[in-house]
């Protein structure tokens, strides 16, 4: 099995086009076509993690945070990334990052943490715009079923909790084949009228290549007539943060205690308590202060995230509690997420969870 086989599976769950514009997810170092041996899973790739990969004879490190985040201008001794880069190359260790693309999928890291704290029925807090396309294709009546099935199998036609969604209109197509054509129906140099079905489906933009390829393979015509339309509709299966509900409401202190015990953070910074029950919970692992207003609009009783600033805590009481649960503490569960999905897909291969403590924030009591 190649390293790229590992990446392909991860990208089927968290497609790279769903990452934020500023991000650098994907391959950072190495040759994806090398044979896979062992992988080390981590939150942050540090020198300690790289040494651990060497000791464990791993030729792949999968990290959540891309350690190459902005353009490198030089690779010389003393630069933060230099030792990691040179060590990885010297020991033939490839490095792959899965960051905001994993944050932005419905079943990603946010869902893992929501499950840990007992939040159910989650939906995306701020769905991504501009990620959907509509395909309209015209095909003869007798092939409409097979063309639709090919489109659905390629990932088109999913809307929320429904699949195999399409809109179909009967009409008549006209065309005239030239001498060089090989028409499926009709005669060369003769105007032909054919009863056709216009099939419309929507799909996420990152599946365009797969959907169009499936269409062209299933369609009987030599020249397939189809249109692609960009949509401004929000994509409900991808975006920032999640919101869901507890099965049973909890008092504020009880809920915060549950969160602290689940994440392992020794102390939670929070805005003034409201002395009301907590049931609707919003969450964004890592730095999610930009979603405070989204959580308010969604009716959250509490919003959990990290890296909150002093002024973020003003002006919310009594509408919603915000709580800072730590960047590292909210995201370190990415190692478990990776381990579970990779072991399920590749049960006979070795995936190791890094034991290195990469949290740069320490607490004094």
Describe this structure as you would to a colleague.
The protein is an alpha/beta fold and 365 residues long. Helices cover 27% and strands 30% of the residues. It contains 11 helices and 15 strands. A 6-stranded mixed beta sheet has the order 5-10-12-13-14-11. A 5-stranded mixed beta sheet has the order 1-4-3-2-15, with helices on both faces. Strand 2, helix 2 and strand 3 form a beta-alpha-beta unit. Helix 6 packs antiparallel against helix 7.
List keywords for this structure.
globular; 5-stranded mixed beta sheet; 11 helices; 30% strand; 27% helix; 365 residues; alpha/beta; 6-stranded mixed beta sheet
Instruction: Tell the overall outline.
Output: globular
Mean pLDDT: 95
Q: Strand order of the main beta sheet, please?
A: 5-10-12-13-14-11
Total of DSSP H or I helical runs spanning 4+ residues: 11
Number of strands: 15
In terms of per-residue confidence, which ranges show pLDDT below 50 for 5 or more consecutive residues?
A: none
Helix content: 25-40%
Strand content: 25-35%
